[in-house]
User: What shape does this take?
Amino acid sequence: MEEKKLNLTLKIWRQAAPDAAGGFQEYKVYVSPDSSFLEMLDELNNELESQNLDPIAFESDCREGICGTCGLVINGHPHGPIPKIATCQLHMRHFKDGDTIWVEPFRAKAFPVIKDLMVDRSAFDRIMEAGGFISVNTGSVPDGNAIPIPKDIASEAMDSASCIGCGACVAACKNASAMLFVSAKVSQFALLPQGQPERYRRVQAMVKKMDELGFGACSNTYACEAECPKGISIKNIARMNREFIKAKVKTEEIDV
Amino acid sequence: MLKLDSKVPTGPIEEKWTNHIFNMKLVSPANKRKYDIIVVGTGLAGASAAATLGELGYNVKAFTFHDSARRAHSIAAQGGINAAKNYQNDGDSVYRLFYDTIKGGDFRSREANVYRLAEVSGNIIDQCVAQGVPFAREYGGTLANRSFGGALVSRTFYAKGQTGQQLLLGAYTAMNRQINLGKVKLYSRREMLDLVVVDGVARGIVVRNLLTGEIEKYSAHAVILATGGYSNVFFLSTNAMNSNTTAIWRAHKKGAAFANPCFTQIHPTCLPVHGESQSKLTLMSESLRNDGRIWVSKIKGDKRHPNDIPEEERDYYLERKYPSYGNLSPRDISSRSAKEVVDEGRGAQGQEAVYLDFRDAIKRLGKKVIEERYGNLFEIYQNITGENPYEVPMKIYPAPHYTMGGLWVDYNLMSTIPGLFVAGEANFSDHGANRLGASALMQGLADGYFILPYTIGNYIASERPKLVETSHPEFEKAENNIKNMINKLLSIKGKRTVDSIHKELGRIMWNKVGMSRNEKGLKEAIEEIKELREEFWKNVNVVGKNEDVNQCLERAGRVADYLELGELMARDALNRNESCGAHFREEYQTQEGEALRNDEEYAYVAAWVFKELGDWELVKEPLEFENIQLATRSYK
Assistant: This one.
C-alpha cells in the first residue's frame, strides 16, 4: 500500500535551554502518508544526527495515546488538528503535499520549556500528591464486591479517570488553567463511594495546590474540552466547582 | 560456581506462603524508619512496592526516567487483570488459576511462585477497588468479568480497554499519598546506569540526571528493580519507546544471574508493519479474541478484498485446529499459527497479516454491544490504519510484546545478589515459557503490594544490612565507569546513527531469534550480533554532550546493552534443544507442527552468570512438579 509521499515544510520551535531565547527553524521533509507525526520527527532527527546536528528534543513513550508523554502544538492546536487523539496518534495522511506545519511546545507559565519541544509538567504531579488519592493502606480492604457500584456511576467515573495527564487542556487555555485536569480526578473520586470520606478535603487540597503553582482561572471558553485527546467533559469542572463550594459550607477550611 | 537456592518453603503448596509469612522475621514498627529502600521503576510493580513499603514505615527512594511516575509502560496494558475470585460461579479457584498458569507457561515455571500468585490474586482486586479503580460493573453493581486466552473461565477484571492505565493510576495515587506524607521521595528523570555492590551485597545505585547529565549516587539497605521487560531489543515491539533493559542488564553484569532470556512473547494481535520509518508496533488487546474470529483465505496469494471472500473460502484456522479453545488459544500458539498461514502465502491480501473479523459478533450482539466492549480499540485501529473495523475485518500480525525471561529470583524475589530484589516483568519468576493474557498486571501488583513488603522485611530483620555511604570507593568506581562509558560513546563520532544500528539488531533478532528459531540461524545471529556490536563501538555517532538533555546519548546507552543482551538471548535459545511455549525450535516439533518439549533434559530454569562479554556460565535450577503432572499442552 505504498501511497504517494508528501513534501512538507516544518517550522519547528528550537530552544537550547530553559532560559535561552528560542525561535522557529525550517526543515524540509519527504514523508509517507502512513507514517505518524512522531515517526516523521524520528526520521528528521536521524537525518540531523547523521549530519552531526543536534536532534530536536521532543518527548514520547507509548505511542498509543495512553501514557500522556507526548504533546506538541501543531498548527496552533495541542496534539494537532484532529480531535480526540494525542500527538503520537496523528498520522501524516491528514496533511497535504506542500503543506507548511508549525510545531511548538505546550506553552504555559506552569509548564516551563526544558529544551526545544520538551516542557516540565511536574506541576501536575504536585497537585496529585496534594490530594488526588484515596487514603487506604495495602491490606485492610473489604472484598471487591462488598462495595456495589451502579454500572452508570462506574462508567461515569471511568470517563473522568481516563485523563492521561498530558497537559493539552492547560496548553489550550488562554489562562493556562488546569481545571479540566484537576476536576477529572476530583470527579472520579467524588462519584465513587470509596472517595466519600475524603471528598471535601481532597477538592480543597488539590485546588489550593493548583492555585499555588501558577495555573490560571477558568473563564469557560471550553478550549480544554475541545483539545482534550480523551474527550474529558467540562461537566467535570462544573462538578468540581460544586464540590468546592460544598466543601466550604460543609467543612472547615483545611490546612494544606 | 554459583549455586541457586530457590528458597521454596517446605510443606503442602496451599500452606507454603502462609507458613512462610509466619516464619519470616519482622522489623519492629519503630525500626522500619531506620531503613532506606531504593525502588527503580514506577510501573505497577515499582509504584505498588514503593507505596506499600512507605505505608509500612520504610524510607523509600523511588526512581523513574520519566517526567512523571504515571508514564510507566504498565499504563498501556489494555485487556485486564486475572484473579481467582470465581465471581462468575463458573468453576474458577486458586488451584485452577495456578493450573492454567503452569500449563500456559508450558511447564517451565516454579510451582510455588505460581501458586502464591494465584493465591494473592483476589486481594489485588479488593485493593484496587478500594483505591477507586473504576472497574467495569454489572447492572447490579457487582464487578464484571470477561474471558481471556488460555482459560475456560471468566476471571478477567477490566476497565474498558484501559485496565493498565487504571491500575497504574491506582498504584500511582497510593504512592503519591506516601510522597505527600514524606515516606516516599520521588526522583524523576533519573536513569539507573549501575548497581553498586559492596562485599557482595547490593548497596545502592548510580543514575544519570536526564536534565543535567549529572551522575548521581544513592545508597540504601535494599534495592528493588522493577524496570520492566526488554522486548525493544527487537527494535519494533509493542513496548514504549523508552522501555529498556539497561537497569537489569547492568545489574546482571554486576553478578545477578539472568534467567531464560530467550523466553520472549510474541503477541498475536498487533497491527502489521507499515514501512521502514515505523517506530513501534501497536497492540490490539487480546480481549478482542473473545468476539472476533481469526481467519485467512483458503487460497494462496488471494488479493481479494476480505468482504468479497465467501464464507466457504475462509479458513478459521484457530477454530479448525484447536476446537475447544479456538480463537482464545494461548498467545504462543496463536502467533505461530498466524506465521504458518502467512508463510504458506495465505496472508491477508498477500501481506504479513491475518484477519480479525467482527462481522458475526456484530450480527449476533449488535453494533452497540461491540462498541461498548471494544469501542476505544476500534477507534485506535481506525485512526492508525484509516479503515473501519465495524465494516472491514481488522488486519493483525504478531509482534514482540513481553519478556518472560529476566533476572533470576528466589521465592523471596531476591536475585543472586543479596539485597537486590526484582519485581514485575523485570524478573523471570511466574510465567515460564509463555505468559497468559491478563497475568502481567496480576504479577506486577502481586509482587509490589503483597510479596516484597514481607520478604524485604525478612531480609532486613535477618541480615541487618548496614548503610554504605556514597563516598565509599565502590560508589566512586561505579561513577567513574559510567562517566568513562559516556565519554567513550560521545567520542566515537562515527558514521552510523544509533537508530540505524538498533534497527539492524532488531532485524537479526526478529529473523533469527524471533517466533521460530533453528540452530543454524541462532549461530549466525550470535556472530552477526558480535559484528554489529563492534561496528557500534567503532562507528556510532552520538551527537551532543553529556551536560544537557541528550536523548541521543540516552538511546545509545540502551542500544549498547541490547547488543550484549541479544547475544545472550541467542545463546540461551541455542542451548535449549526443545520447543516450549514461546520458544519454538524448528528442529523440535511434532508431526502436526506443535511444540515438542523435552522434559528429561530441559525441565530447568537456565540462569546465566556473566563472566565477561561473550562468556557466560550456565547454572540450572531444576524444576520439580509435585502438584501438577507434566503433560503435553493440548488446546484441541
User: Anything to note?
Assistant: Chain A touches chain B through 81 residues (CB under 8 Å).
